Amino acid sequence: MGAAFFYHLTREPMEATLPVLLGKAQQAGWRILLRGRDESRLRWLDERLWQGAEDSFLAHGMAGGPHDALQPILLADETLSSEGAACLMTIEGATVSPEEVHRLERTCILFDGNDPDAVQTARDQWKALTAAGCAAQYWSQEEGPWRKKAESNGT
Known about the structure:
Blueprint: E1 3-9, H1 14-27, E2 32-35, H2 39-50, E3 61-62, E4 73-76, E5 87-91, H3 98-103, E6 106-112, H4 116-131, E7 135-140, E8 147-152
Parallel strand pairs: 1-6, 1-7, 2-4, 2-5, 3-4, 5-6
Antiparallel strand pairs: 7-8
């Protein structure tokens, strides 16, 4: 049974934090689905990931190609199932179901702490997922390095 990890971004933008989390998930041996709501934003992230430092290259692809099942990191919109992934990362309020959290090794929900709507969406997701019995952790960087601020075992 997996858990949902909420990352409240306040000091660094999502495009700086995301490669670090993706790298850690790859080190764990997980296939990752990166789910977003806006295809143009996903394409922008696709370009950013290709332009990363050589020593931190993250092989990935956009969903809809002939080799989706082979991609270690697949960027997709909300219509693509997380089947075949071990880790789901969501950005900008993309949906995640309790069933996915339970089935996957890890679910990471990144949200912009400077956007009140994003914060409210994350709060709503926390409430819905923990009410459905999902374990969850809330991580914040407001006071400097990442710190775990809250945890729920889902019961």
